[in-house]
Design brief:
The chain is α+β, with helices and mostly antiparallel strands and about 725 residues long. Among the domains are: about 325 residues, Beta-galactosidase, Chain A, domain 5 (Distorted Sandwich); about 80 residues, Immunoglobulin-like. Helices cover about 20% and strands about 30% of the residues. The chain has 13 helices and 37 strands. The protein has a nine-stranded antiparallel β-sheet. An eight-stranded parallel beta barrel has the order 20-21-22-25-26-27-28-29, surrounded by four helices. Strands 5, 10, 13, 16, 17 and 18 form a six-stranded antiparallel β-sheet that branches. Strand 16 and strand 17 form a beta hairpin. The longest helix is centred in the C-terminal third of the chain and has 23 residues. The two termini are about 35 Å apart. Bound molecules: alpha-D-galactopyranose (GLA). Alpha-D-galactopyranose binds next to loops.
Length: about 725
Amino acid sequence: MSLSYDASARTFTISTAASTYQMKVDAHGYLLHLYYGALATGDMSYLVTYADRSGMCGCPHDVADRTYSLDVLPQEFPFQGAGDMRSPLLLVRGEDGTFGCDLRYVSHEIRPGKYGLPGLPSVYAQDGDDAETLSITLADERLGLEVELLYGVMPAYDVITRAAVVTNRGEGRVTVEKLQSACLDFVSGDFDLITFDGRHAMERRPSRRPVMNGSMSVGSRRGMSSNQYNPMMVLCDRPATETSGRAWSMSFVYSGGFLAEAERDQYEQTRVQMGLDDDLFSYPLEPGEKIVAPEVIMSFSPAGIERISHNLHRVIRERVCRGPWRDSPRPVLINSWEACYFDFTGDKLVALAKKAASLGLDMLVMDDGWFGARNDDHRGLGDWKPNMAKLGGSVADLARRVNEVGLGFGIWVEPEMVNEDSDLFRAHPDWALAIPGKAPVLGRDQLVLDLSRADVRDNLFEQLCAVLDQGGIDYVKWDYNRSIVDVHSRVTSDQGKVLYDYMLGLYDLLERIVSRYPDLLIEGCSAGGGRFDAGMLHYTPQIWTSDNTDARNRLEIQYGTSFGYPCSAVGAHVSACPNEITGRTIPLGARGTVAMAGGAFGYELDLMELNDRACEIIRTQVATYRKVEHLVREGLFYRLSDPKDADVAAWEFVSEDGREALVCAVVTRVDGYGKAQYVVPRGLTPGATYRMVSNGSEFSADALMDMGLPLTVPAGPYENFMYRFERVD
Ligand code: GLA
């Protein structure tokens, strides 16, 4: 049984394939966290120690016991108000303005199936899955506040999910000033924290540092999960590597602002926690109202960080992503953006499509510039009506012409935004988030629409349906290109609700679109990778990873992304050189090898300018991709080197059954008469023999995984290698 309650010890125990999690209701009704680690049995209450803490906050329910202080004890859902002075998950104020509450255990329930969260994305179970939910209710008597802690357990996926529902069952208003979803308290251990940091066009590079006394945090106040910090983090033993040491992860299933914290306290105990950003948050609950803290997926590995990634890849790919595209090969795209930016016509796109068809591609995506007065990025957002003169007809007409040359058809949209120079803004200036009397902060000349408003969402839904209902559109790239600065909605006086309600609004709009167009493939995008999170992946099974298509930078960006997200989600295109952003020139072969590490592969350059040799290389790349695509999308992914430091960036995909493997490498540095480079694969079946598909040579799996595979001595930087292996059974 994956979930159990021991009534005599008052412990809850959760087990997954490789982890055990335990908590306990103590004598005062507080819920203590006991253990999250390697599979274990029995009562772990002994891990909590008591000593004289008379200099510290005592127990509100037993003043005589000077050994009891919540400031020391490991907790499951820490809150401000009962003596824990570390960072809380919950901070509330009563109607009189007083901070604090006192949450104690009331009841619990264990039920079959995985809980869902109203209006929010979450991991789901499907028929045949072994899934259970634990619901624990805590309450504060004075305020009448109730907190339901939800735990979802799907043992086969080796993850535990957490969420919380805060309900005001009292008679006065309660304002939630901070709300986080989950924490992990460790009574001992020295840890490193790994977060995934960056900026526009350089997202999600791993940043690893020791957790020292004090607190450290990453997060986003931008109304989006952000290009700067990602809502996924790993905590690990200080010496942990890809294959050794304990590691834990937290991934937020939410696409708005977040806060992820790590704190080492006065007794060198560690707390990590994740949840909503609290800076721009203040959420009043009237009697009867509730707010849901979005889901956090937690994973534990007893043997290195790699296993954390494998767990997350599997659960996100199979039980966060949805729809028919979840398990299907994705179309190989030609995207018009870096091919021609705003400078296109319907004829030009049809010519591009024809050329793409001759190279073996599947779909043309018409990026920005097809609607309203949108011939540059100063105007037109909000007016989702085709520019018929530019396209030479309707979108459906163009789709038909593209279909006739043998390609599917997709379009770009950025529905959440509006330019001041647009018909929508002229008709509804109050629909944009803006503070009356204050000059709005523009980003790329655009404002954000108030998606917390149902009328705004209805308008966008109708406009999008008017385009999609014409037919012929197989794919949509859903973009979002700026942060929210001016947090002010015209329809509420509680501005601290707006950013959270905005996200509920966005998810509502996306849900309506995916329900009405179940076969539509949607690719998320946010100035490249600014909303690359598990929340968006519930609606868009792939995401444009970064606006940076330079293969050298992409090695790092995709490496960092792989810690928390499956390759099936990674949008990766081959673009022209010199690269638009970095000015770097990298051979087409290496650009292809790097982009083929994404399960959403394509091209983003003017195909009409290619010479015959380049066309031949692309034809071969597309043919190669078709052969390995299933491994990229569904295989176990191994980071064989860190591209930031290594002379050879190397990675590998292995099918779950171990029968096939694909080892990829790109040389990033060459020295005069340099040494031979060896790539050491992992995950092959021990004892087996593997045959290299290209030349039939046979290798012992054990020798390969020990000494590695020598690459031919590289003649120059960006020489690239893709070796396919099949197990000889
Ligand atoms: C963003 C996206 C790009 C492209 C442009 C269009 O920057 O990340 O891929 O779609 O918008 O304006």
